[in-house]
Amino acid sequence: MPQLRYNVATSLDGYIASPDGSADWNIDDSTIDFDALYEEFDFFVMGRKTYETMLSFGGPDENRLCNRPKKNVIVASRSLKPEDFPGITILSTNVVEFIRQLKLGAGKDIWLMGGNNLATQCLRAGLVDTIEAAVMPVVLGDGIKLMEAIDSTENLPVRLNLLGSERLESGIIMTSGGNRENCHIDQENGPQVDGVA
Length: 197
What we know:
Riboflavin_Biosynth_HTPR; eight-stranded mixed sheet; RibDG_C; 4 helices; EC 1.1.1.302; riboflavin biosynthesis; Dihydrofolate Reductase, subunit A; 17% helix; alpha/beta; globular; 5-amino-6-(5-phosphoribosylamino)uracil reductase activity
């Protein structure tokens, strides 16, 4: 079954965007194989602001999302009109249930690209299997957080099993953690996420 992976770039202090929504502080690293990364996923789920940011990245040569089947791009938005974005799946309600149904299907994983509101809803619903963060060596001090504040009535903190961590030459730290409900400890190989090699 497909895994829902919240894969995102973040600052060292936990922001995915500056206060104005920009992310020009992200570091380009030529050692990251984005073509291979995109091939790990069948579906790309995001909120409206993330989608609008992705549209600004240019055409197929610069924006790998343009090379994916449009029907596999799912945008959660109350303001975008489907007729303005033919082929894209735009959901104004029942987004979490739609993602739950995607996870019950077959195929490759589902990339939860952002934003933090959608990621928080999915985490609350127990749908996030892994959080994969490219941590940039920069401190913003303010902006859009990796996650929205979670109600204090919920089980906090959300504990994850560390699945991997790697420092790139650019200074980016690639790290991933798995939701413990979907994880187990393999005595020989360390933390594993069910269904992920």
